[in-house]
Amino acid sequence: MAAAIDLLRRDDVRLLALIGPGGVGKTRLAVRIAEVVTGEFNHGVTSIDLAAVRDPELLPRAVAFALGLRLDGDEASLAAILRALADRHLLLLIDNLEHLIAAAPDLARIIEGAPRVKVLVTTRERVPLAIAHHLQIPPLTLPSDEEDLAAIAVAPAIQLFVERARAIDDRFTLTAENAAAIARICRRLDGLPLAIELAAARVNALPPAA
To answer: Helix/strand/coil (H, E, C) string of 49-104?
Structure first.
């Protein structure tokens, strides 16, 4: 998060892409970043979720809708966006860009025509634009030793598992008896936060060893 914020604050960074596999936490990270920097933009943050948009040609319309623009008849969405953003100082947070990568040139036009706008996107694929800066989001760190309780307890992947397991069963604790099994679960799930959360939700039905 610190690295992303530092990049967004640079004058030469107009488009920052958080890139990583599904379930690694890109959306959650982007939302948290936006919460931190919103006060640095005169017009705050506008969020656009592209998960339900399938046609790359509809990306400008999705952006226009998020900005609250009312299009007159067949008015081009991109033209309306550029007029609306010409004098605005804001951050566009665009989530789930990967299946609309073909619309990247439209993002470039928005950035070129709106000099005080920055764009933060989440994507599984790199954005094919020269102006794009990419920040790889890694999975959670796993314990280096699957037998040492102290080493297991401090690993972020384990901490997330325990946190989510306690949300299901407030009696759940990390113990010498279940620590190695939890470590193996998190390792098999490659440290992906979403997968760990889904696994931890089963503790009320199955013990970690099972």
So the answer is: ECCCCCCHHHHHHHHHHHCCCCCCCCCCHHHHHHHHHCCCCEEEEEECCHHHHHHH
Beta-carbon contacts of 26 under 8 Å, excluding residues fewer than 6 positions away, are: 18, 19, 20, 95, 122, 123, 137
**What class does CATH assign to 2-136?**
alpha beta
Share above pLDDT 90 across residues of the chain, in percent, rounded to a whole number? 86
Contacts of 106 (CB under 8 A, 6+ apart): 59, 60, 78
Q: Where are the domains of the chain?
A: 2-136, 149-200
Q: CB within 8 A of 53, min separation 6: which ones? A: 59, 62, 100
Nearest partner of 134 among 121, 115, 147, 143, judged by Cα: 121
Q: Give the Cβ contact number of residue 9 at 10 Å.
A: 11
| SS3 call for 30 | helix
40's tokens: 């640095």
**Residues forming beta bridges with residue 135, ordered by sequence position:** 18
What is the tens place of the pLDDT at every residue in 95-126?
999 999 999 999 999 999 999 999 999 999 99
Q: What is the model's pLDDT at position 89?
A: 96
